Amino acid sequence: MDGTFRPPEEAGARLIVDLGAIAANWRQLADLAAPAECAAVVKADAYGLGAAQVAPALWDAGARTFFVAQLAEARVLRPLLPDAVIYVLNGLTPGATAIVSELRARPVLGSLPEIGEWQAAGGGEAAIHVDTGMNRLGITLEEAFGVAERYSAGTLGFQPSLIMSHLACADEEAHPLTVRQIADFRKIVAAFGDVPASLANSSATIANPDARFDLCRPGIAVYGGNPVPWRDNPVRPVVRLEGRVVQVRDVPEGQGVGYGAAEMTKRPSRIAIVSVGYADGFLRAGGSSSLRTGAETIVRGQRCPLIGRISMDLLAVDVTDMPLGSVSRGDFACLLGDGITVDEVAGHAGTISYEMLTGLGARYARTYTI
Ligand SMILES: *Cc1c(COP(=O)(O)O)cnc(C)c1O
Protein backbone atom coordinates (compact mmCIF):
# COMPACT_ATOMS: atom_id res chain seq x y z
CA MET A 1 0.00 0.00 0.00
CA ASP A 2 1.35 3.44 -0.88
CA GLY A 3 -0.30 5.19 2.06
CA THR A 4 -2.26 7.57 -0.15
CA PHE A 5 -5.65 8.42 1.26
CA ARG A 6 -8.40 7.90 -1.29
CA PRO A 7 -11.76 9.52 -0.65
CA PRO A 8 -14.41 6.78 -0.94
CA GLU A 9 -16.24 8.63 -3.73
CA GLU A 10 -13.07 8.62 -5.84
CA ALA A 11 -12.29 4.94 -5.41
CA GLY A 12 -13.96 1.99 -7.07
CA ALA A 13 -14.14 0.04 -3.86
CA ARG A 14 -13.58 0.25 -0.15
CA LEU A 15 -11.45 -2.11 1.88
CA ILE A 16 -12.19 -2.16 5.57
CA VAL A 17 -9.57 -3.72 7.83
CA ASP A 18 -10.84 -4.71 11.27
CA LEU A 19 -7.98 -3.99 13.68
CA GLY A 20 -10.16 -5.22 16.54
CA ALA A 21 -10.43 -8.63 14.88
CA ILE A 22 -6.67 -8.65 14.27
CA ALA A 23 -6.07 -7.95 17.98
CA ALA A 24 -8.63 -10.58 19.02
CA ASN A 25 -7.08 -13.18 16.71
CA TRP A 26 -3.63 -12.47 18.09
CA ARG A 27 -4.90 -12.72 21.68
CA GLN A 28 -6.53 -16.06 20.89
CA LEU A 29 -3.23 -17.32 19.48
CA ALA A 30 -1.33 -15.94 22.48
CA ASP A 31 -3.67 -17.79 24.87
CA LEU A 32 -3.10 -21.02 22.94
CA ALA A 33 0.65 -20.50 22.81
CA ALA A 34 1.04 -19.81 26.54
CA PRO A 35 3.26 -20.42 28.41
CA ALA A 36 5.23 -19.89 25.19
CA GLU A 37 5.48 -16.30 23.97
CA CYS A 38 3.43 -15.35 20.93
CA ALA A 39 5.12 -13.15 18.32
CA ALA A 40 3.47 -11.65 15.24
CA VAL A 41 4.67 -12.02 11.67
CA VAL A 42 4.11 -8.70 9.86
CA LYS A 43 6.17 -9.30 6.71
CA ALA A 44 4.93 -8.04 3.32
CA ASP A 45 3.24 -5.00 4.89
CA ALA A 46 1.40 -7.16 7.42
CA TYR A 47 0.20 -9.58 4.73
CA GLY A 48 -0.90 -6.66 2.58
CA LEU A 49 -3.11 -5.05 5.21
CA GLY A 50 -0.80 -2.19 6.23
CA ALA A 51 2.00 -2.66 8.76
CA ALA A 52 1.78 0.98 9.85
CA GLN A 53 -1.73 0.38 11.23
CA VAL A 54 -1.51 -3.32 12.07
CA ALA A 55 1.79 -3.45 13.97
CA PRO A 56 0.86 -0.79 16.59
CA ALA A 57 -2.52 -2.54 17.07
CA LEU A 58 -0.68 -5.80 17.74
CA TRP A 59 1.67 -4.07 20.15
CA ASP A 60 -1.38 -2.68 22.02
CA ALA A 61 -2.81 -6.21 22.12
CA GLY A 62 0.39 -7.37 23.83
CA ALA A 63 2.75 -8.55 21.08
CA ARG A 64 6.38 -7.71 21.81
CA THR A 65 8.27 -9.71 19.17
CA PHE A 66 7.75 -9.11 15.45
CA PHE A 67 9.04 -10.81 12.33
CA VAL A 68 9.55 -9.10 8.96
CA ALA A 69 11.14 -10.57 5.84
CA GLN A 70 13.36 -7.68 4.79
CA LEU A 71 15.45 -4.99 6.39
CA ALA A 72 13.40 -2.27 4.63
CA GLU A 73 10.37 -3.59 6.50
CA ALA A 74 12.26 -3.34 9.81
CA ARG A 75 12.98 0.30 8.92
CA VAL A 76 9.24 0.97 8.57
CA LEU A 77 8.50 -0.83 11.83
CA ARG A 78 11.18 0.61 14.11
CA PRO A 79 9.76 4.13 14.61
CA LEU A 80 6.27 2.64 15.10
CA LEU A 81 7.50 0.13 17.69
CA PRO A 82 10.51 1.66 19.42
CA ASP A 83 10.69 -1.06 22.07
CA ALA A 84 9.79 -4.17 20.05
CA VAL A 85 12.11 -7.04 19.23
CA ILE A 86 12.24 -7.15 15.42
CA TYR A 87 13.61 -10.19 13.59
CA VAL A 88 14.46 -10.13 9.87
CA LEU A 89 13.55 -13.54 8.47
CA ASN A 90 15.48 -13.32 5.20
CA GLY A 91 18.71 -12.97 7.11
CA LEU A 92 21.74 -10.77 6.82
CA THR A 93 22.27 -8.99 3.49
CA PRO A 94 26.02 -8.79 2.72
CA GLY A 95 27.47 -5.66 4.30
CA ALA A 96 24.27 -4.72 6.10
CA THR A 97 25.47 -5.29 9.69
CA ALA A 98 25.69 -1.56 10.45
CA ILE A 99 22.14 -0.93 9.23
CA VAL A 100 20.83 -3.88 11.22
CA SER A 101 22.46 -2.43 14.33
CA GLU A 102 21.21 1.09 13.61
CA LEU A 103 17.65 -0.28 13.40
CA ARG A 104 18.23 -2.46 16.47
CA ALA A 105 16.91 -5.36 14.39
CA ARG A 106 17.97 -8.97 14.79
CA PRO A 107 18.82 -10.94 11.68
CA VAL A 108 17.68 -14.54 11.38
CA LEU A 109 21.03 -15.99 10.31
CA GLY A 110 20.36 -18.76 7.83
CA SER A 111 23.75 -19.84 6.51
CA LEU A 112 27.33 -20.25 7.78
CA PRO A 113 28.55 -17.23 5.75
CA GLU A 114 25.89 -15.07 7.44
CA ILE A 115 26.92 -16.37 10.85
CA GLY A 116 30.57 -15.71 10.00
CA GLU A 117 29.87 -12.17 8.81
CA TRP A 118 27.76 -11.39 11.89
CA GLN A 119 30.49 -12.74 14.18
CA ALA A 120 33.27 -10.86 12.37
CA ALA A 121 31.35 -7.60 12.61
CA GLY A 122 30.82 -8.11 16.32
CA GLY A 123 27.05 -8.24 15.89
CA GLY A 124 24.72 -8.44 18.87
CA GLU A 125 21.76 -10.72 19.44
CA ALA A 126 20.55 -12.71 16.43
CA ALA A 127 18.47 -15.76 15.64
CA ILE A 128 19.94 -18.88 14.08
CA HIS A 129 17.78 -20.63 11.50
CA VAL A 130 18.21 -24.38 11.19
CA ASP A 131 16.76 -26.23 8.21
CA THR A 132 14.88 -29.33 9.33
CA GLY A 133 13.37 -30.33 6.00
CA MET A 134 12.00 -27.34 4.14
CA ASN A 135 15.19 -26.81 2.12
CA ARG A 136 14.69 -23.09 1.86
CA LEU A 137 16.68 -21.14 4.47
CA GLY A 138 18.75 -22.36 7.39
CA ILE A 139 21.93 -24.20 8.24
CA THR A 140 21.94 -28.00 8.11
CA LEU A 141 21.58 -30.13 11.23
CA GLU A 142 25.29 -31.00 11.10
CA GLU A 143 26.24 -27.35 10.80
CA ALA A 144 23.90 -26.53 13.67
CA PHE A 145 25.58 -29.03 15.98
CA GLY A 146 28.92 -27.40 15.08
CA VAL A 147 27.61 -23.91 15.85
CA ALA A 148 26.14 -25.21 19.13
CA GLU A 149 29.58 -26.50 20.10
CA ARG A 150 31.14 -23.13 19.41
CA TYR A 151 28.39 -21.51 21.47
CA SER A 152 29.01 -23.86 24.40
CA ALA A 153 32.76 -23.28 24.13
CA GLY A 154 32.23 -19.51 24.22
CA THR A 155 33.74 -18.95 20.77
CA LEU A 156 30.63 -18.07 18.76
CA GLY A 157 31.25 -14.36 19.28
CA PHE A 158 27.63 -13.27 19.66
CA GLN A 159 24.58 -14.23 21.69
CA PRO A 160 21.97 -16.33 19.82
CA SER A 161 18.64 -15.03 21.12
CA LEU A 162 16.59 -17.63 19.26
CA ILE A 163 17.04 -21.01 17.58
CA MET A 164 14.42 -21.41 14.92
CA SER A 165 13.23 -23.64 12.14
CA HIS A 166 10.21 -23.59 9.83
CA LEU A 167 7.66 -26.31 9.08
CA ALA A 168 7.01 -27.20 5.44
CA CYS A 169 3.68 -29.00 5.82
CA ALA A 170 2.07 -27.60 8.96
CA ASP A 171 -1.12 -26.82 7.06
CA GLU A 172 -1.75 -30.52 6.46
CA GLU A 173 -3.14 -32.56 9.32
CA ALA A 174 -0.59 -34.87 10.99
CA HIS A 175 1.89 -34.76 8.10
CA PRO A 176 4.83 -37.19 8.66
CA LEU A 177 7.36 -34.51 7.68
CA THR A 178 6.10 -32.32 10.54
CA VAL A 179 6.69 -35.13 13.03
CA ARG A 180 10.22 -35.61 11.72
CA GLN A 181 10.97 -31.87 11.72
CA ILE A 182 9.84 -31.52 15.35
CA ALA A 183 12.01 -34.47 16.43
CA ASP A 184 15.11 -33.12 14.65
CA PHE A 185 14.50 -29.62 15.92
CA ARG A 186 14.31 -30.94 19.50
CA LYS A 187 17.83 -32.34 19.22
CA ILE A 188 19.19 -29.01 18.01
CA VAL A 189 17.38 -27.11 20.75
CA ALA A 190 18.91 -29.43 23.36
CA ALA A 191 22.38 -28.80 21.94
CA PHE A 192 21.92 -25.04 22.39
CA GLY A 193 20.95 -25.46 26.04
CA ASP A 194 19.37 -22.27 27.35
CA VAL A 195 18.66 -20.51 24.03
CA PRO A 196 14.91 -20.01 23.41
CA ALA A 197 13.45 -21.99 20.50
CA SER A 198 10.80 -21.22 17.86
CA LEU A 199 9.19 -23.49 15.28
CA ALA A 200 5.44 -22.93 14.99
CA ASN A 201 3.68 -20.85 12.34
CA SER A 202 -0.10 -20.25 12.59
CA SER A 203 -1.10 -23.82 11.74
CA ALA A 204 1.24 -25.37 14.28
CA THR A 205 0.42 -22.80 16.97
CA ILE A 206 -3.21 -23.87 16.72
CA ALA A 207 -3.01 -27.55 15.88
CA ASN A 208 0.30 -28.84 17.18
CA PRO A 209 1.19 -28.26 20.86
CA ASP A 210 4.45 -30.21 20.32
CA ALA A 211 5.66 -27.48 17.99
CA ARG A 212 5.10 -24.48 20.25
CA PHE A 213 8.47 -24.45 22.09
CA ASP A 214 9.29 -21.00 23.58
CA LEU A 215 8.01 -18.65 20.88
CA CYS A 216 5.24 -19.05 18.28
CA ARG A 217 5.31 -17.12 15.01
CA PRO A 218 1.78 -16.86 13.60
CA GLY A 219 1.07 -14.77 10.51
CA ILE A 220 -1.95 -15.78 8.45
CA ALA A 221 -4.19 -16.59 11.43
CA VAL A 222 -3.71 -13.08 12.78
CA TYR A 223 -5.13 -11.82 9.47
CA GLY A 224 -8.12 -14.16 9.44
CA GLY A 225 -6.94 -16.79 6.93
CA ASN A 226 -7.74 -20.37 7.87
CA PRO A 227 -4.49 -22.00 9.03
CA VAL A 228 -6.18 -25.40 9.53
CA PRO A 229 -7.90 -26.08 6.19
CA TRP A 230 -8.99 -29.55 7.32
CA ARG A 231 -11.39 -27.98 9.80
CA ASP A 232 -13.41 -24.83 10.43
CA ASN A 233 -11.50 -21.59 10.66
CA PRO A 234 -10.94 -20.85 14.36
CA VAL A 235 -10.13 -17.16 13.85
CA ARG A 236 -12.22 -14.15 12.93
CA PRO A 237 -12.36 -12.60 9.46
CA VAL A 238 -10.45 -9.33 9.22
CA VAL A 239 -11.09 -7.78 5.82
CA ARG A 240 -14.20 -6.55 4.16
CA LEU A 241 -14.16 -5.53 0.50
CA GLU A 242 -17.06 -3.67 -1.08
CA GLY A 243 -17.05 -2.80 -4.76
CA ARG A 244 -19.22 -0.09 -6.19
CA VAL A 245 -21.86 -0.93 -8.77
CA VAL A 246 -21.12 1.28 -11.81
CA GLN A 247 -24.24 0.28 -13.72
CA VAL A 248 -26.92 -2.38 -13.96
CA ARG A 249 -27.85 -3.68 -17.41
CA ASP A 250 -30.26 -6.14 -18.94
CA VAL A 251 -28.74 -8.75 -21.21
CA PRO A 252 -30.88 -11.03 -23.39
CA GLU A 253 -30.50 -14.83 -23.27
CA GLY A 254 -27.63 -16.33 -25.25
CA GLN A 255 -25.25 -13.37 -25.09
CA GLY A 256 -21.64 -13.44 -23.92
CA VAL A 257 -20.65 -11.34 -20.93
CA GLY A 258 -17.18 -9.80 -20.78
CA TYR A 259 -13.91 -10.61 -22.57
CA GLY A 260 -13.84 -13.72 -24.70
CA ALA A 261 -17.61 -14.12 -24.31
CA ALA A 262 -16.44 -16.79 -21.89
CA GLU A 263 -19.86 -17.13 -20.28
CA MET A 264 -23.18 -16.91 -22.09
CA THR A 265 -26.41 -15.86 -20.44
CA LYS A 266 -28.72 -18.87 -20.03
CA ARG A 267 -31.78 -16.67 -19.55
CA PRO A 268 -32.70 -13.01 -19.89
CA SER A 269 -30.34 -11.58 -17.27
CA ARG A 270 -29.67 -8.54 -15.18
CA ILE A 271 -25.98 -7.85 -14.71
CA ALA A 272 -24.37 -5.47 -12.20
CA ILE A 273 -20.99 -4.14 -13.31
CA VAL A 274 -18.72 -3.57 -10.28
CA SER A 275 -15.66 -1.34 -10.11
CA VAL A 276 -13.13 -3.97 -8.98
CA GLY A 277 -10.79 -5.99 -11.20
CA TYR A 278 -7.61 -7.98 -11.26
CA ALA A 279 -5.56 -4.77 -11.01
CA ASP A 280 -7.04 -4.56 -7.51
CA GLY A 281 -5.82 -8.04 -6.67
CA PHE A 282 -9.20 -9.58 -7.32
CA LEU A 283 -7.61 -12.43 -9.18
CA ARG A 284 -8.64 -13.03 -12.77
CA ALA A 285 -8.53 -16.77 -12.20
CA GLY A 286 -11.51 -16.37 -9.85
CA GLY A 287 -13.78 -15.41 -12.74
CA SER A 288 -16.62 -17.44 -14.15
CA SER A 289 -17.18 -19.13 -17.51
CA SER A 290 -19.63 -21.51 -19.09
CA LEU A 291 -17.27 -24.32 -17.95
CA ARG A 292 -16.66 -23.37 -14.33
CA THR A 293 -18.30 -21.20 -11.69
CA GLY A 294 -16.30 -18.37 -10.20
CA ALA A 295 -16.37 -16.38 -7.00
CA GLU A 296 -19.57 -15.08 -5.46
CA THR A 297 -20.55 -11.69 -4.06
CA ILE A 298 -23.23 -10.49 -1.69
CA VAL A 299 -25.59 -7.86 -3.01
CA ARG A 300 -28.22 -6.50 -0.64
CA GLY A 301 -27.82 -9.53 1.60
CA GLN A 302 -28.09 -12.13 -1.12
CA ARG A 303 -25.38 -14.29 -2.68
CA CYS A 304 -24.94 -13.52 -6.39
CA PRO A 305 -22.36 -15.22 -8.63
CA LEU A 306 -19.86 -13.55 -10.91
CA ILE A 307 -20.62 -13.96 -14.58
CA GLY A 308 -17.84 -14.01 -17.18
CA ARG A 309 -14.20 -13.09 -16.83
CA ILE A 310 -12.81 -10.57 -14.38
CA SER A 311 -11.23 -7.67 -16.27
CA MET A 312 -8.56 -5.25 -15.10
CA ASP A 313 -10.90 -2.73 -13.48
CA LEU A 314 -14.34 -4.34 -13.56
CA LEU A 315 -16.22 -7.51 -12.88
CA ALA A 316 -19.79 -8.57 -13.65
CA VAL A 317 -22.28 -9.97 -11.15
CA ASP A 318 -25.43 -11.86 -12.10
CA VAL A 319 -28.23 -10.18 -10.12
CA THR A 320 -31.09 -11.69 -12.12
CA ASP A 321 -32.50 -13.40 -9.02
CA MET A 322 -32.72 -10.14 -7.10
CA PRO A 323 -36.09 -8.35 -6.95
CA LEU A 324 -36.52 -5.93 -9.81
CA GLY A 325 -35.08 -2.52 -9.03
CA SER A 326 -33.35 -3.69 -5.83
CA VAL A 327 -29.83 -3.17 -7.20
CA SER A 328 -28.82 0.15 -8.63
CA ARG A 329 -25.89 2.27 -9.68
CA GLY A 330 -23.90 3.43 -6.65
CA ASP A 331 -24.74 0.38 -4.52
CA PHE A 332 -21.96 -1.73 -3.06
CA ALA A 333 -21.42 -5.41 -3.72
CA CYS A 334 -19.61 -7.24 -0.94
CA LEU A 335 -16.71 -9.25 -2.38
CA LEU A 336 -15.10 -10.23 0.95
CA GLY A 337 -16.99 -10.34 4.24
CA ASP A 338 -20.53 -11.28 5.31
CA GLY A 339 -19.53 -14.93 5.14
CA ILE A 340 -17.45 -14.68 1.97
CA THR A 341 -13.99 -15.57 3.25
CA VAL A 342 -10.60 -14.83 1.79
CA ASP A 343 -10.06 -18.59 1.67
CA GLU A 344 -13.23 -19.05 -0.38
CA VAL A 345 -12.31 -16.44 -3.00
CA ALA A 346 -8.70 -17.62 -3.10
CA GLY A 347 -9.98 -21.15 -3.64
CA HIS A 348 -12.01 -20.06 -6.67
CA ALA A 349 -8.84 -18.51 -8.08
CA GLY A 350 -6.81 -21.67 -7.41
CA THR A 351 -4.63 -20.03 -4.80
CA ILE A 352 -4.31 -19.50 -1.05
CA SER A 353 -5.43 -16.77 1.35
CA TYR A 354 -1.81 -15.58 1.71
CA GLU A 355 -1.53 -14.69 -1.97
CA MET A 356 -4.95 -13.08 -2.07
CA LEU A 357 -4.27 -10.87 0.97
CA THR A 358 -0.78 -9.79 -0.05
CA GLY A 359 -2.07 -8.98 -3.54
CA LEU A 360 -4.93 -6.71 -2.46
CA GLY A 361 -4.49 -3.58 -4.50
CA ALA A 362 -3.51 -0.01 -3.78
CA ARG A 363 -6.55 1.64 -5.36
CA TYR A 364 -9.03 0.91 -2.59
CA ALA A 365 -10.29 3.52 -0.17
CA ARG A 366 -8.88 1.81 2.90
CA THR A 367 -10.36 2.26 6.33
CA TYR A 368 -9.34 0.76 9.62
CA THR A 369 -11.87 0.00 12.32
CA ILE A 370 -11.10 -0.76 15.95
C1 LIG B 1 5.74 -16.39 6.99
C2 LIG B 1 6.42 -17.14 8.06
C3 LIG B 1 5.75 -17.44 9.26
C4 LIG B 1 4.27 -17.22 9.44
O1 LIG B 1 3.58 -18.26 8.77
P1 LIG B 1 1.98 -18.35 8.75
O2 LIG B 1 1.71 -19.62 8.01
O3 LIG B 1 1.52 -17.15 8.00
O4 LIG B 1 1.52 -18.36 10.15
C5 LIG B 1 6.48 -18.02 10.28
N1 LIG B 1 7.81 -18.31 10.11
C6 LIG B 1 8.47 -18.06 8.97
C7 LIG B 1 9.89 -18.44 8.84
C8 LIG B 1 7.80 -17.49 7.89
O5 LIG B 1 8.44 -17.27 6.74
From TrEMBL:
Name of the protein: Alanine racemase
Pathway annotation: Amino-acid biosynthesis; D-alanine biosynthesis; D-alanine from L-alanine: step 1/1
The organism's taxonomic lineage, starting at the top: Bacteria, Pseudomonadati, Pseudomonadota, Alphaproteobacteria, Hyphomicrobiales
InterPro entries noted in UniProt: Ala_racemase, Ala_racemase/Decarboxylase_C, Ala_racemase_C, Ala_racemase_N, Ala_racemase_pyridoxalP-BS, PLP-binding_barrel
Domain of life: Bacteria
Active site: 43, 259
Gene expressing this chain: alr
Residues reported to bind substrate: 136, 312
Reactions catalysed: L-alanine = D-alanine
Sorted UniProt keywords: Isomerase, Pyridoxal phosphate
Single Gene Ontology MF annotation: alanine racemase activity
Residues recorded with modification N6-(pyridoxal phosphate)lysine: 43
NCBIfam families xrefs: alr
Homology family: Belongs to the alanine racemase family.
Essential cofactor(s): pyridoxal 5'-phosphate
Task of the protein: Catalyzes the interconversion of L-alanine and D-alanine. May also act on other amino acids.
Keyword Isomerase belongs to the record: yes
Record carries keyword Mitochondrion: no
EC number, UniProt record: 5.1.1.1
Transmembrane segments: none
Alanine racemase C-terminal domain sequence ranges: 238-369
